[in-house]
């Protein structure tokens, strides 16, 4: 009898083993786990994923939800994801370490409803297979580095509600259907088109808008769209937010735009719109209107101004307005801000006796106002600088001062308690309790208000968030909002802190659930805040509770019951498991081994904080370079050798291998990999990875084929740079630096801008390189940082050298020297002469080309072809002003160079060339852009005398 029982139990046990082996979802999930790092600790055991793995939810033993927001995952998204055919939710948002392209096999997920990959590091072209996910409702792929065109196949997703492709590098036109191929005009159920912050070009197709559409938010801002605004836009009566600003749109604003009676926010600014100022009579819901910086024909001040009774913000600077403002405009009850600067508004400014109590600023700078009748209320900031009323001798009125734009320092106040002193890393919550909050930024793309100092606005948002978290039983004790500001995209950015309700620190489940509620837009604020996206900061789970391993006595019980036969079976299974576990442990140890060598005491600092950059082993890089063979050597320098390598995915890389004792210290090495791992822009050299293993220091970059700008100017690269090419190089480098200053978070000062650190790819697109000396401006001080002076002689800002106060304007100075070097091909300091002084002494603004023919590079081209050179010189000399306050920002420099290119008949947004062969390229051997010592080595220079910029 005992033998039969043992035999029966053995059969059951073997069937259990086979049924577990046949759980394909678990198999494919484990394959994903093996491709990723930093997965939750409870993924490391061999239990069924459906039995409690963090972020995994199952139905009938099939995985239907993967939510892993903000866990610091690194790796790729392999094709195994396409085998989880029951998957309905996939949220990998806020994991910047997830890189590579999207696998076409993602199209196998026919039941997927939510695809959320917000703020990751994915790149490459979007696969056409996205259009095969027929059940998709939410597609949020914003804040990645996707390139190429928007797949027309997305038009096949009939249930799509939310389409967010913003803040990528997408190019090409907006796809519409043509009878044989689908297009976005087929998405009649979509409510959100978010395409801002890309490089989309061509006209806005008329066909994309029609009366069957139900769009609420249309966000096409900050692209390269051309042509006119189609009349069909007026057919989409459901629209509430329209953003077409910062494109290259031309022509008249369609007259039927005032049919959009539900629109609350309308941005048409910074285009090239012409014709009359549009008539917006009837837009009774309009809160925020920005028509600034267009080329409208001269128009009288519109009579419809005072009819927009919901208006909070009116921006129409540089719109050719003429006439006197009606006092009724200022009586609109919700009005907060008016900016009509740089027009021809004249007569008397009268705010009226009953102007809006919310009115904070009226900016009429640079108009023709001769009289001002102030109101009895003195809280309104009126700006009339540049008007005749302020040009009278002896005028000292406050309204003649320039605008202050102080911003806001708002922070959620304590809740009837006194803030407590917390240990390092902890923060006192609004309820005065120390804990580790989950932090990030809420980015509102189209808020209906302009005031940043109104505390009731933020208090209302805080209450909404707390009500949401409480209703959804999320572990939130309190919420704090801080430091509201407007960024370069005119988005409202608010820092968010979410404090845990029970323990001092969130566990992974808490972060996953909160992150999903924000990435999935489950939390929906009232309409005054508009549409938003969230970007979460890295969260340290160290010490979080509830993450211990699970023990089991199953083996003991089974062994006792089924006897020796089952013990044998268990030993086989245990042996296989132990082997797999050992291999995984060895692999994990090996992958992390570079950090084990990082020594805080040897000057290299703490282990670097990486966002998606791969740590290669010495063996891997040896394999990719054929054991660092001579045939793969593409250059050498004082620090060592540069090798061309090929990764398993086919990507070509340049591997800079430092010799022992090279001049770059561990701190500079760490700085460069930390900074480059978190900046992504087409005009910045991409860091693929690094090696800090077996005593080696190696940096792995994308392979750039055409050398440095210095090489090209000297003739070593083998192709000639004419005026057109130099303008494009200047613009590309300027955009790279603008990204570092304005869009990197926190901002980055390069500190070593020079032609040796600007590389040219196969299309001669400029890419800024070498971040070994760069500095971040942290939250504690966003204006400057005191630092030991480092840089390169001839390019260094003299103000920085004298004061040791480093600011973004130090990069601007260096870039000004680069601009002068571009037109002269001279070294900054050559034979004791300084390029800035040489140009200033030679120039004569009364003569053609400022009389600079003798200092210009002879290979730049014929004199008659140098359109815009005088303005180019003006920009360069403004950049090298002695004091930082007198210099422009990099954003201003970008705009000016774009304007110069247009003057020269060039499209500033066109690619440089199809490839370098279009530039009469002649190869000159094996020289490579990474052969310059300064790209790797410490390049600080110390001066004994002041560098005279004059």
What does this structure look like?
This protein has 950 residues and is an alpha/beta fold. Among the domains are: 110 residues, Alpha-Beta Plaits, CATH 3.30.70; 99 residues, 2-Layer Sandwich (Phosphorylase Kinase, domain 1); 243 residues, Transferase(Phosphotransferase) domain 1 (Transferase(Phosphotransferase), domain 1), CATH 1.10.510.10. 22% of the residues lie in helices and 20% in strands. Helix 1 runs parallel beside helix 5 and helix 11 runs antiparallel to helix 13. 45% of the residues are buried. The C terminus is likely disordered.
Please report which band the strand proportion falls in: under 5%, 5-15%, 15-25%, 25-35%, 35-45% or over 45%. Answer: 15-25%
Question: Strand arrangement, largest sheet?
Answer: 1-2-4-6-8-10-12-14-16-18-20-22-24-26-28
Here the CATH topology of one domain equals Transferase(Phosphotransferase), domain 1
Distance between the termini: 105 Å
Give unreliable regions as ranges. Answer: 9-22, 544-574, 577-597, 599-605, 913-950
Compute the CA-based radius of gyration: 31 Å
CATH architectural category of one domain: Orthogonal Bundle
Main sheet properties: 15 strands, mixed
Number of strands: 48
Question: Which percent bin holds the helix content?
Answer: 10-25%
Q: Which class do the helix and strand fractions yield?
A: alpha/beta
Kindly provide the name of the CATH class of one domain.
Answer: Mainly Alpha
> In one word, what is the shape?
globular
Can you give the mean pLDDT? 82
Quick one: CATH superfamily of one domain?
Transferase(Phosphotransferase) domain 1
Q: How many individual helices?
A: 14
């Amino acid at each position: 009898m005992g033998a039969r029982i043992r035999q029966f139990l053995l059969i059951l046990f073997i069937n259990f083993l086979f049924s577990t082996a046949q759980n394909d979802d678990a198999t494919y999930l484990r394959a994903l786990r093996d491709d990723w790092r930093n997965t939750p600790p409870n993924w490391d055991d061999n239990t069924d994923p459906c039995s409690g793995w963090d972020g995994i939810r199952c139905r009938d033993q099939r995985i239907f939800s993967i939510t892993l927001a903000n866990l610091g995952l690194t790796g790729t998204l392999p094709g195994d994801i396409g085998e989880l055919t029951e998957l309905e939710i996939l949220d990998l948002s806020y994991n910047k370490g997830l890189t590579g392209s999207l696998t076409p096999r993602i199209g196998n997920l026919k039941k997927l409803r939510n695809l959320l990959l917000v703020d990751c590091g994915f790149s490459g072209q979007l696969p056409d297979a996205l259009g095969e996910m027929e059940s998709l409702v939410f597609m949020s792929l914003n804040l990645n580095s996707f390139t190429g065109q928007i797949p027309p196949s997305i038009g096949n997703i009939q249930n799509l509600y939310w389409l967010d492709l913003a803040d990528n590098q997408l190019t090409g036109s907006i796809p519409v259907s043509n009878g044989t191929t689908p297009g976005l005009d087929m998405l009649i159920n979509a409510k959100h088109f978010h395409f801002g912050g890309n490089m989309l070009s061509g006209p806005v197709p008329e066909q994309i808008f029609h009366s069957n559409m139900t769009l609420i938010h249309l966000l096409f801002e900050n692209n390269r769209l051309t042509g006119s605004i189609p009349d069909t836009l007026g057919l989409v009566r459901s629209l509430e937010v329209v953003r077409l600003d910062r494109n290259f749109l031309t022509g008249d604003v369609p007259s039927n735009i005032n049919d959009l009676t539900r629109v609350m926010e309308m941005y048409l600014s910074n285009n090239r719109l012409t014709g009359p100022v549009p008539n917006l009579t009837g837009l009774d819901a309009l809160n925020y209107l920005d028509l600034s910086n267009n080329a409208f024909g001269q128009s009288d001040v519109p009579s419809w101004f005072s009819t927009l009774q919901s208006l909070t913000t009116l921006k129409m600077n540089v719109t050719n307005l003429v006439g006197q403002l009606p006092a009724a405009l200022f009586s609109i009850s919700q009005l907060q801000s008016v900016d009509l600067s740089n027009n021809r508004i004249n007569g008397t400014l009268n705010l009226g006796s009953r102007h809006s109590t919310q009115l904070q600023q009226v900016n009429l700078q640079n108009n023709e106002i001769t009289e001002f009748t102030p109101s009895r209320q003195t809280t309104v900031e009126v700006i009339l600088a540049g008007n005749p009323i302020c040009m009278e001798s002896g005028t000292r009125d406050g309204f003649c001062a320039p605008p202050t734009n102080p911003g806001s320092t708002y922070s959620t106040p304590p809740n009837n308690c006194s803030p407590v002193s917390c240990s390092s890393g902890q923060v006192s919550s609004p309820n005065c309790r120390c804990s580790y909050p989950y932090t990030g930024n809420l980015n509102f793309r189209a808020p209906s208000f302009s005031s940043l100092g109104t505390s009731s606005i933020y208090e209302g948002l805080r209450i909404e968030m707390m009500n949401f978290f409480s209703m959804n039983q999320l572990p939130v004790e309190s919420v704090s909002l801080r430091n509201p500001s407007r960024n370069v995209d005119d988005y409202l950015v608010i820092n968010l802190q979410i404090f845990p309700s029970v323990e001092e620190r969130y566990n992974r489940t808490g972060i996953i659930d909160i992150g999903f509620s924000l990435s999935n837009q489950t939390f929906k604020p009232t309409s005054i805040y508009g549409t938003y996206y969230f970007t979460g900061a890295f969260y340290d789970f160290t010490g979080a509770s509830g993450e211990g391993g699970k023990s089991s006595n199953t083996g003991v019980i089974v062994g006792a019951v089924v006897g020796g036969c089952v013990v044998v079976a268990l030993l086989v299974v245990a042996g296989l498991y132990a082997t797999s576990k050992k291999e995984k442990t060895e692999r994990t140890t090996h992958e992390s081994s570079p950090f084990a060598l990082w020594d805080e005491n040897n000057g290299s600092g703490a282990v670097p904080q990486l966002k998606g950059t791969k740590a290669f082993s010495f063996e891997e890089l040896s394999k990719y370079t054929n054991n660092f063979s001579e045939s793969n050597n593409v250059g050498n320098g004082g620090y060592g050798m540069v090798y061309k390598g090929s990764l398993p995915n086919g990507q070509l890389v340049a591997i800079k291998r430092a010799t022992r004792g090279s001049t770059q210290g561990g701190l500079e090495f760490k700085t460069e990999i930390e900074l480059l791992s978190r900046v992504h822009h087409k005009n910045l050299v991409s860091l693929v990875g690094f090696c800090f293993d077996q005593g080696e220091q190696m940096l792995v970059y994308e392979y750039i084929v055409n050398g440095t700008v210095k090489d090209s100017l000297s003739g070593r690269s083998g192709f000639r740079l004419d005026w057109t090419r130099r303008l494009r190089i200047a613009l590309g480098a300027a955009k790279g630096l603008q990204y570092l200053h304005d869009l990197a978070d926190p901002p980055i000062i390069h500190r070593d801008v020079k032609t040796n650190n600007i590389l040219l790819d196969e299309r001669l697109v400029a890419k800024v390189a070498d971040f070994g000396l760069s500095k971040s401006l942290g939250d504690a001080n966003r204006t400057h940082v005191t630092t030991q002076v480092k840089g390169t002689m001839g390019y260094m800002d003299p103000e920085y050298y004298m004061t040791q106060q480093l600011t973004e304007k130090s990069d601007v100075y260096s870039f000004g020297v680069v601009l002068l070097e571009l037109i002269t091909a001279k070294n900054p300091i050559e034979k004791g002469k300084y390029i800035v002084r040489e140009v200033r002494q030679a120039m004569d603004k009364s003569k053609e080309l400022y009389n600079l023919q003798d200092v210009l590079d002879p290979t730049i081209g014929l004199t008659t072809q140098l359109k815009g050179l005088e303005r180019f010189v003006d920009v360069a000399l403004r950049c090298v002003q002695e004091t930082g306050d007198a210099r422009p920002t990099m954003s201003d420099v970008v705009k000016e160079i774009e304007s110069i290119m247009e003057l020269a008949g060039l499209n500033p947004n066109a690619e440089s060339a199809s490839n370098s062969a279009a530039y009469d390229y002649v190869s000159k051997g094996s020289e490579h852009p990474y052969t310059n010592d300064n790209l790797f080595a410490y390049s600080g220079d110390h001066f004994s005398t002041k560098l005279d910029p004059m």
